Amino acid sequence: MQIQPRQQLLDIWRSTARLSFVDGEWLFGGRDGANSISDAEQLLCIMAPATEIPLFRLDNPNVAERDVLDALDALGTHVQVPQRLVRALAKYLERYTEEDGTPIFSGDTYFASGEPGAEIEPAQRRLDVVDSFSVSITLMLATIGFTRIFRQVVTRPDLLGEVSALEQAASKRLTAAMVGLLRSFAVNVFSSEDDFGQELIRMVNQDRRPTRQVVEELRNALREINARLRDDVTIGSGTAENGEFDLPDRLFECGWSWGIVKDAPQIDTSDVGVQRPGLAQNAPYMYFTAVALDAIQALSSERTRLLGLLDEAQLRLAQSLQLRFELTRSYWAAIAEFGQARWPLEDLPWRTVDGVEADYFTLLVSGMTMQNQIAVRAPATDLSRVAAVLEEVANRSRITRRSTEREPALDVHHPGLRFDLVGSEAAGGPPLAWTAADISPLLLRRTLTLAGLLPDGTAYSRLIDLADELWRHVDSRSLTGGLTDGLWDQPAGAYPQLDVKYTEVSWYYTKRVVDCLVTAARIINEPPLRSELLVAMAADLLIEAEHLYDRERLNNSTHSGDALATELNQIGIDLERARARRRERPGVAVAVAQDVLRRLDRLSAARQATRGTM
Fold first, then answer.
1. Which pLDDT score is estimated for 614?
2. The domain containing residue 577 runs over which residues?
3. How far apart, in whole angstroms, are the C-alpha atoms of residue 476 and residue 491?
């Protein structure tokens, strides 16, 4: 693997600290301006590695690695680094909290006008958006986990008060973000005969069978999801009314809308401030569904459970979100893998029910399919089919295939895929739009994740080769020179034909590169793939080595000398080590056994030569 996450993350930390901490203050803002999402992404460039990779931990200065602290020397000494991070996090929470205590989850400067030249109204900029709920969950979990450990080494009463206040404020924002996600869940029910239904059937009907048969089979495949949506989704949004699910020609889709769904009921929970009314269309958006699922996964992660980061009220909210996670993941996997021949997922590009098609959507659905395959322990053949889809997306989006001119395929990289936020016009002003331009780091992250799941060495190697190509592409897009050196994003670095030149950092893109590096570090830290062939080979070699070792001990005199006794003793230790490693690391066991066999052969030859001269 060409990716070197330790060094690359340290370089990102060094540049982030220099750029963000000036004259004793943490400064927010980047290329896209300051907002609740970008500022959280900026903090996560440091907080994500610090809380997800043990080597990068900062919550206990006494055990932090030297090079890790050196990378953040712009923040001060090893004692000052965690203190200043506490104050930067507290500043973020204060910045995005109303005077009445209501957390702010607005898209603000990330919103764009859906009508060229039309001015966005201030009320529209204040609209809540799912991306802010999701990134807040990730940042607040990191913050609470950080404070739980840091508090144990704090001795100053005033600093202990700051840490406690930060944890309390972070917990409140976490609860509010979870409530926001629950109120943003959408279920779109439609007839198989209307435009939405026809688009869905066209997508899943890869065998070109009669429509009525496809509808019946699709409803049967979604029967359990249908039932749980009706019976188990009891709080927040996402329930179908008037028995629509039961009509024989009805199909549906589920996931997350762009913001709080129109008419979403309020949720009875601990004080999270005002629960604002929703305006968003009651229909899922691929992009927001994917980011919501990633955030919900963090709520049920091993770290979250071990550190007890959620209180009782949050655990109840997390259970409701987990239910939606499972239903959504299962739904999109069922759609993506529907049929007996070619999967709809393999028919690129993915086409949504409103008729929009893009390779980026294929990548998003691939991620949800992978999440479901992990849950159901799908066979390696299914995982390999998703791997082939990722390779095709890389080709079609001109990442692994050369592009010599300005062509439409480059638009997904710059300016990105833009889609309208239906319902946003109700706040006054033009319809708002959202832009997604993260196909390269998202594809790299999905590729690394899938590589870590494949048991077959050949398939693993193929995906690692793809990851290396993707990393070269991403690395070529880093900014060079000045304070932003080593941060992102410069699309022209990979595509010189793009007439664009940036000097400011995009925290949106940089945070996603950090996510890739964190994923790479996790893959590297996991045990290597076990080859059954190597396991069998190690067993055979050890049988022979142990037999020869026993024979040497039998045939050598006790008066043969200390050197021989020492050598035989060391060989015994090495054989024991090889036996212990045989299952976990068979390649190591093979190497040790081969070395032992060579040494035993030399001893045997020396013994025979000695006896021949007597």
1. 46
2. 532-612
3. 8
> What's the CA gap between 471 and 462, in Å, rounded?
14
Cα–Cα distance between 296 and 184 in angstroms, integer?
13
> What does the DSSP assignment read for 275-296?
-PPP-B-SS--HHHHHHHHHHH
> How buried is 560 (Cβ within 10 angstroms: 0-12 exposed, 13-18 middle, 19+ buried)?
middle
**Based on the structure, what is the number of domains in the chain?**
1
Question: Quick one: DSSP state of residue 152?
Answer: G
Low-confidence ranges of the chain (pLDDT < 70): 240-243, 528-531, 557-561, 610-614
Alpha carbon 226 to its chain's center? 28
Is residue 576 one of the residues assigned to a domain? Answer: yes
> How far is the CA of 362 from the CAs of 408, 435, 579, in angstroms?
17, 16, 46
Q: How far apart are CA 488 and CA 477, in angstroms?
A: 7
| Residue from 409, 292, 284, 304 nearest 359 by CA | 409
Consecutive H or E run containing 419: strand 417-421
Q: What is d(CA 196, CA 232) in angstroms, rounded to the nearest whole number?
A: 25
- Per-residue pLDDT tens over the stretch 247-270: 788 999 999 999 999 999 999 887
| Residue 438: per-residue pLDDT | 95
C-alpha atoms less than 13 angstroms from C-alpha of 499 in its C-beta half-sphere: 2
Q: What pLDDT sits at residue 530?
A: 65
**Main-chain phi, psi angles of 434, to 5 degrees:** -130, 145
